Amino acid sequence: MITDQELDMVLARYFDESERIAQVFFDKESERIAQACYQMARRFHQQGRIWTFGEGFWTTDAQHVAVEFVHPAIVGNKALPGISLSNNNALITGFDPEWKYAWGLKRLAKPGDMALGFSTDGQTPSIVNALREARELGMLSLGLSGSPGFDETVADFIFTVDSTDPLLIQETHELVSHVLYELVHVFLEQEVLL
Questions:
Q1: Three-state secondary structure call for residue 78
Q2: Residue 59: strand, helix, or coil
Q3: Residue 90, pLDDT score
Q4: Which parts of the chain fold into alpha helices (H)?
Q5: Cis link prior to 148 (omega < 30° from 0)?
Q6: Cα–Cα distance for residue pair 79/59, rounded to 1 Å
Q7: Domains of the chain: total
Q8: Residue 106: domain span
Q9: Among 3, 17, 110, 116, fewest CB within 10 Å belongs to which?
Q10: Closest residue by Cα to residue 132 from 112, 148, 151, 113
Q11: pTM for the whole thing?
Q12: Tens of pLDDT along 76-116?
């Protein structure tokens, strides 16, 4: 049986590693995140929509991001159009698994929209194919993953969490998602910049 002291040590190690990974990530990526948010705000300002997608438990992260834009968590923030392709059961189950999201973007999205894909390691075929399709369509494309990460040609902005632990990757992705949401609204409040 695990003692209280051993449990405290396990939890402390986990929280320390979680904090370290997030700190390293944001130290490295904060400027590019700001650039991505500015580009996203410009697209929203021009009536663009954000399309989100992920595999496994990243489907719920994709849904979470879309609903945050549609139903602002912060009072006073403007509702923005967000759609999670991960919610579309016909799309998910009715098409080739490796091309389902790419197919959805090709049929539903338009140039000026945004695509945000979540992957454990940047190697998920359905996410890679969708992000490539997004670029071909003239969409702003963003890929979030853990190590080893997406190939640099897959998306306009690639953000890789330096970890292979899916729980730690997901925690950092959630932080990134909240920063994207909040900073996009900061830019939208400064309409003269858009």
A1: coil
A2: helix
A3: 80
A4: 4-45, 58-70, 89-94, 100-108, 125-136, 166-189
A5: yes
A6: 21
A7: 1
A8: 4-193
A9: 3
A10: 151
A11: 0.94
A12: 889 999 999 998 888 778 888 899 999 999 999 999 999 99
